[in-house]
């Protein structure tokens, strides 16, 4: 029987970082609880939460009294703790591909994609999308980098980045959907890739989750 696992995330289910952790938990077929925190209400700043997470960041994962924050660290912990063959792997099998997978995840979280994230924010993907202004030059340059990166990752017409699905596919898909869902220009091959990945059960479980009315909190 799987031990109790708790994922702490923000209450509107729009965080791309909580998304990666949630998808990993579902892919590994783990029993887990999601606890929603109100960032506007300062739940993440409560002394007990800060003490347990070290940083007061969201998301965080709790497992058997151990608490870790930062999505990449959480995904790595889940991969190591709930490893194959008992549980599905969310990383490639060989060392070089695993390194590339981590590179993809890190780059998509970096300042290289920050302008795109700012102008095509996550909440606009999961709530009603109002017309968006055209991307600024800075965000357009960020989008071009993302599309070029994706084209090179998905060489030779592969349906996934590596020879099988990994968590990097979920992260890349979420980034591509920032553009595709708003009608921004995305090459047909990448748009098709993202659309297929969007229907993957672990991803769809996040996309279709019931959400409270969104209230900006930043």
Account of the protein in words:
The protein is α+β, with helices and mostly antiparallel strands and 218 residues long. The chain folds into two domains: 5-88, 3-Layer(aba) Sandwich (Glutaredoxin), CATH 3.40.30.10; 95-200, Up-down Bundle (Glutathione S-transferase Yfyf (Class Pi), Chain A, domain 2). The protein is 47% helix and 9% strand. It has a four-stranded mixed beta sheet with strand order 2-1-3-4, covered by helices on one side. Strand 1, helix 1 and strand 2 (33-37) form a beta-alpha-beta unit. Helix 1 packs across helix 8 (167-180), helix 1 (16-27) crosses helix 10 (201-207) and helix 7 crosses helix 8 (167-180).
Question: Which terms would index this structure?
Answer:
alpha+beta; about 220 residues; Glutaredoxin; single chain; 2 domains; Glutathione S-transferase Yfyf (Class Pi), Chain A, domain 2
Give a topology summary.
Layout: E1 5-10, H1 16-27, E2 33-37, H2 47-53, E3 60-63, E4 66-69, H3 71-81, H4 95-108, H5 114-119, H6 123-126, H7 137-153, H8 167-180, H9 188-198, H10 201-207
Parallel strand pairs: 1-2
Antiparallel strand pairs: 1-3, 3-4
Which outline best applies?
globular
| Biggest β-sheet description | 4 strands, mixed
Which fold does the CATH topology of the largest domain refer to?
A: Glutathione S-transferase Yfyf (Class Pi), Chain A, domain 2
Please give the radius of gyration in angstroms.
Answer: 17 Å
Helices, by number, come to 10
Level-1 CATH class name of the largest domain: Mainly Alpha
What is the helix/strand order? EHEHEEHHHHHHHH
- Total domain units: 2
């Amino acid at each position: 029987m799987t031990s109790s696992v708790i994922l702490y995330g923000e209450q509107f289910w729009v965080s791309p970082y909580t998304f990666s952790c949630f998808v990993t938990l579902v892919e590994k077929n783990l029993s887990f609880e999601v606890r929603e925190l109100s960032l506007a209400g300062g739940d993440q700043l409560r002394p007990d939460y800060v003490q347990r997470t070290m940083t007061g960041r969201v998301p965080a994962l709790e497992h058997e009294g151990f608490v870790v924050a930062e999505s990449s660290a959480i995904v790595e912990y889940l991969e190591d703790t709930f490893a194959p063959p008992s549980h599905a792997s969310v990383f490639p099998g060989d060392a070089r591909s695993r390194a590339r997978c981590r590179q993809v995840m890190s780059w998509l979280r970096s300042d290289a994609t920050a302008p795109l994230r700012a102008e095509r924010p996550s909440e606009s993907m999961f709530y009603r999308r109002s017309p968006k202004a055209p991307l600024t030059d800075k965000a357009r340059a960020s989008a071009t980098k993302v599309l070029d990166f994706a084209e090179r990752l998905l060489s030779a017409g592969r349906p996934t980045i590596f020879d099988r699905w990994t968590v990097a596919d979920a992260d890349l898909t979420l980034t591509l959907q920032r553009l595709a869902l708003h009608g921004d220009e995305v090459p047909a091959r990448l748009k098709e890739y993202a659309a297929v990945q969007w229907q993957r059960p672990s991803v769809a479980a996040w996309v279709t989750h019931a959400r409270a009315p969104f209230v900006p909190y930043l």
